[in-house]
Design a protein that fits this description.
- By secondary structure, this protein is an alpha+beta fold.
- It has a domain of 134 residues: Beta Barrel (Lipocalin), CATH 2.40.128.640.
- Helices cover 19% and strands 27% of the residues.
- It has four helices and eight strands; from the N terminus they run H-H-E-E-E-E-E-E-E-H-H-E.
- Strands 1-2-3-4-5-6-7-8 form an eight-stranded antiparallel beta barrel.
- Strand 6 and strand 7 form a beta hairpin.
Protein backbone atom coordinates (compact mmCIF):
# COMPACT_ATOMS: atom_id res chain seq x y z
CA UNK A 1 0.00 0.00 0.00
CA UNK A 2 2.82 2.40 0.93
CA UNK A 3 4.59 1.70 -2.39
CA UNK A 4 1.37 2.37 -4.33
CA UNK A 5 0.79 5.68 -2.48
CA UNK A 6 4.37 6.84 -3.01
CA UNK A 7 4.12 6.13 -6.79
CA UNK A 8 0.86 8.07 -6.89
CA UNK A 9 2.39 11.02 -5.00
CA UNK A 10 5.49 10.90 -7.23
CA UNK A 11 3.26 11.10 -10.34
CA UNK A 12 1.34 14.09 -8.99
CA UNK A 13 4.58 15.92 -8.13
CA UNK A 14 5.97 15.36 -11.64
CA UNK A 15 2.77 16.63 -13.24
CA UNK A 16 2.74 19.69 -10.97
CA UNK A 17 6.34 20.54 -11.81
CA UNK A 18 5.73 20.08 -15.54
CA UNK A 19 2.70 22.34 -15.37
CA UNK A 20 4.76 25.06 -13.66
CA UNK A 21 7.61 24.80 -16.18
CA UNK A 22 7.22 27.67 -18.72
CA UNK A 23 9.09 25.62 -21.37
CA UNK A 24 6.73 22.62 -21.05
CA UNK A 25 4.47 22.22 -24.08
CA UNK A 26 1.13 20.53 -23.65
CA UNK A 27 0.79 19.91 -27.38
CA UNK A 28 3.30 19.29 -30.16
CA UNK A 29 3.92 22.26 -32.42
CA UNK A 30 2.98 24.95 -29.88
CA UNK A 31 5.70 27.32 -28.77
CA UNK A 32 5.95 28.41 -25.16
CA UNK A 33 5.09 32.08 -24.70
CA UNK A 34 7.88 34.05 -23.03
CA UNK A 35 7.10 35.31 -19.54
CA UNK A 36 7.42 39.07 -19.06
CA UNK A 37 7.39 40.32 -15.47
CA UNK A 38 5.06 43.26 -14.87
CA UNK A 39 8.01 45.38 -13.78
CA UNK A 40 9.58 44.98 -17.26
CA UNK A 41 6.51 46.27 -19.11
CA UNK A 42 6.87 49.80 -20.43
CA UNK A 43 4.12 52.38 -20.44
CA UNK A 44 4.04 53.92 -23.89
CA UNK A 45 1.46 56.65 -23.31
CA UNK A 46 0.40 58.84 -20.41
CA UNK A 47 -3.32 58.51 -19.81
CA UNK A 48 -5.01 61.28 -17.84
CA UNK A 49 -6.80 60.00 -14.79
CA UNK A 50 -9.91 61.16 -12.96
CA UNK A 51 -11.07 60.69 -9.43
CA UNK A 52 -13.84 58.18 -8.85
CA UNK A 53 -16.11 60.99 -7.61
CA UNK A 54 -15.75 62.66 -11.04
CA UNK A 55 -16.93 59.63 -13.01
CA UNK A 56 -19.19 57.70 -10.63
CA UNK A 57 -22.72 57.51 -11.96
CA UNK A 58 -21.74 59.08 -15.30
CA UNK A 59 -22.57 57.02 -18.38
CA UNK A 60 -19.59 56.34 -20.63
CA UNK A 61 -20.02 57.34 -24.26
CA UNK A 62 -17.60 57.47 -27.15
CA UNK A 63 -15.71 60.72 -27.29
CA UNK A 64 -15.24 62.82 -30.38
CA UNK A 65 -11.51 62.18 -29.83
CA UNK A 66 -12.10 58.45 -30.44
CA UNK A 67 -12.64 58.95 -34.16
CA UNK A 68 -9.36 59.11 -36.09
CA UNK A 69 -10.42 59.75 -39.67
CA UNK A 70 -13.31 61.87 -40.86
CA UNK A 71 -15.67 59.92 -43.11
CA UNK A 72 -18.46 62.49 -43.20
CA UNK A 73 -18.04 65.43 -45.60
CA UNK A 74 -16.40 68.66 -44.46
CA UNK A 75 -19.78 70.47 -44.33
CA UNK A 76 -21.05 67.94 -41.76
CA UNK A 77 -18.14 68.16 -39.33
CA UNK A 78 -19.72 71.16 -37.59
CA UNK A 79 -22.49 68.85 -36.37
CA UNK A 80 -20.52 66.10 -34.69
CA UNK A 81 -20.81 65.99 -30.93
CA UNK A 82 -23.19 64.86 -28.22
CA UNK A 83 -26.88 65.81 -28.16
CA UNK A 84 -29.23 65.14 -25.26
CA UNK A 85 -32.86 65.47 -24.15
CA UNK A 86 -34.83 64.26 -21.11
CA UNK A 87 -37.96 62.30 -22.04
CA UNK A 88 -40.75 61.37 -19.65
CA UNK A 89 -41.45 57.66 -19.29
CA UNK A 90 -45.06 58.49 -20.17
CA UNK A 91 -43.80 58.46 -23.78
CA UNK A 92 -43.71 54.81 -24.89
CA UNK A 93 -40.85 55.66 -27.28
CA UNK A 94 -38.29 55.34 -24.45
CA UNK A 95 -39.80 52.10 -23.07
CA UNK A 96 -39.65 52.80 -19.34
CA UNK A 97 -42.33 52.72 -16.65
CA UNK A 98 -41.81 55.71 -14.35
CA UNK A 99 -39.48 58.66 -14.08
CA UNK A 100 -37.48 60.02 -16.98
CA UNK A 101 -34.95 58.83 -19.50
CA UNK A 102 -31.97 60.68 -20.93
CA UNK A 103 -31.93 60.22 -24.70
CA UNK A 104 -28.35 60.80 -25.85
CA UNK A 105 -27.16 60.88 -29.44
CA UNK A 106 -23.42 61.11 -30.11
CA UNK A 107 -22.39 61.83 -33.70
CA UNK A 108 -18.74 61.12 -34.50
CA UNK A 109 -16.68 62.31 -37.49
CA UNK A 110 -16.20 58.69 -38.63
CA UNK A 111 -19.92 58.50 -39.48
CA UNK A 112 -20.99 56.47 -36.45
CA UNK A 113 -23.93 57.52 -34.31
CA UNK A 114 -24.02 56.23 -30.75
CA UNK A 115 -27.57 56.28 -29.40
CA UNK A 116 -28.14 55.71 -25.69
CA UNK A 117 -31.20 55.78 -23.49
CA UNK A 118 -30.39 56.07 -19.78
CA UNK A 119 -33.32 55.31 -17.48
CA UNK A 120 -33.51 57.29 -14.27
CA UNK A 121 -36.74 55.83 -12.88
CA UNK A 122 -37.60 55.82 -9.20
CA UNK A 123 -38.25 52.06 -9.13
CA UNK A 124 -34.72 51.20 -10.16
CA UNK A 125 -31.83 51.03 -7.74
CA UNK A 126 -29.61 52.86 -10.22
CA UNK A 127 -29.57 54.05 -13.77
CA UNK A 128 -29.97 51.51 -16.57
CA UNK A 129 -28.82 52.09 -20.12
CA UNK A 130 -29.68 50.84 -23.59
CA UNK A 131 -27.00 51.46 -26.21
CA UNK A 132 -27.24 51.26 -30.01
CA UNK A 133 -24.64 51.75 -32.74
CA UNK A 134 -26.02 53.51 -35.82
CA UNK A 135 -24.65 55.61 -38.68
CA UNK A 136 -25.35 59.22 -39.59
CA UNK A 137 -25.11 61.58 -42.52
CA UNK A 138 -25.79 65.23 -43.22
CA UNK A 139 -28.35 66.11 -45.89
CA UNK A 140 -27.13 69.52 -47.05
CA UNK A 141 -30.22 70.17 -49.21
CA UNK A 142 -32.73 69.54 -46.40
CA UNK A 143 -30.29 70.79 -43.71
CA UNK A 144 -30.97 67.65 -41.67
CA UNK A 145 -29.06 64.97 -39.82
CA UNK A 146 -30.22 61.48 -40.83
CA UNK A 147 -29.50 58.58 -38.47
CA UNK A 148 -29.52 55.20 -40.20
CA UNK A 149 -30.38 52.43 -37.75
CA UNK A 150 -29.21 48.85 -38.27
CA UNK A 151 -32.82 47.71 -38.88
CA UNK A 152 -33.16 50.07 -41.87
CA UNK A 153 -35.20 52.73 -40.06
CA UNK A 154 -34.12 56.32 -40.66
CA UNK A 155 -34.54 59.08 -38.07
CA UNK A 156 -34.50 62.70 -39.25
CA UNK A 157 -33.42 65.74 -37.24
CA UNK A 158 -33.78 69.37 -38.32
CA UNK A 159 -30.78 71.52 -37.40
CA UNK A 160 -31.50 74.95 -35.92
CA UNK A 161 -29.31 78.08 -35.91
CA UNK A 162 -27.61 77.04 -32.66
CA UNK A 163 -26.76 73.56 -34.05
CA UNK A 164 -29.29 71.80 -31.84
CA UNK A 165 -31.51 69.08 -33.31
CA UNK A 166 -35.29 68.68 -33.48
CA UNK A 167 -36.95 65.42 -34.55
CA UNK A 168 -38.88 65.65 -37.83
CA UNK A 169 -41.78 63.39 -36.83
CA UNK A 170 -43.71 63.65 -40.09
CA UNK A 171 -40.71 62.57 -42.14
CA UNK A 172 -39.77 59.84 -39.64
CA UNK A 173 -43.27 58.34 -39.83
CA UNK A 174 -43.72 58.47 -43.60
CA UNK A 175 -40.35 58.61 -45.41
CA UNK A 176 -40.17 54.94 -46.40
CA UNK A 177 -42.02 51.64 -46.30
CA UNK A 178 -39.48 50.39 -43.73
CA UNK A 179 -40.24 53.33 -41.41
CA UNK A 180 -44.00 52.99 -41.93
CA UNK A 181 -43.93 49.27 -41.10
CA UNK A 182 -41.66 49.77 -38.09
CA UNK A 183 -43.74 52.56 -36.56
CA UNK A 184 -46.98 50.68 -37.17
CA UNK A 185 -45.64 48.10 -34.67
CA UNK A 186 -43.53 50.36 -32.43
CA UNK A 187 -44.23 53.74 -30.81
CA UNK A 188 -43.34 56.94 -32.63
CA UNK A 189 -42.02 59.69 -30.31
CA UNK A 190 -44.94 61.57 -28.74
CA UNK A 191 -43.26 64.93 -29.42
CA UNK A 192 -40.74 66.40 -31.83
CA UNK A 193 -38.02 66.33 -29.19
CA UNK A 194 -35.37 69.03 -29.10
CA UNK A 195 -31.87 67.64 -28.51
CA UNK A 196 -29.39 70.17 -27.19
CA UNK A 197 -25.76 69.95 -28.20
CA UNK A 198 -23.36 69.46 -25.32
CA UNK A 199 -20.60 72.05 -24.92
CA UNK A 200 -17.89 69.44 -24.23
Amino acid sequence: MAVHCSKWLWGICCLSLAACDPTFNSQEGEEAQPFTPVADLQVTEDVPSKRLSEVAGQPVFPSAKDADKAVVPEAALAYFGRYQVKISCEDAYVKCETGTADFILTLLPDGTAHRSIVYLGRVMAGAQMNYYLDYWMYDETAHQIIVHRSNGVEIFYDIDDTQNLRMDLEKIATVSTVNQQYFSRNPLPAHAYYLEKSAD
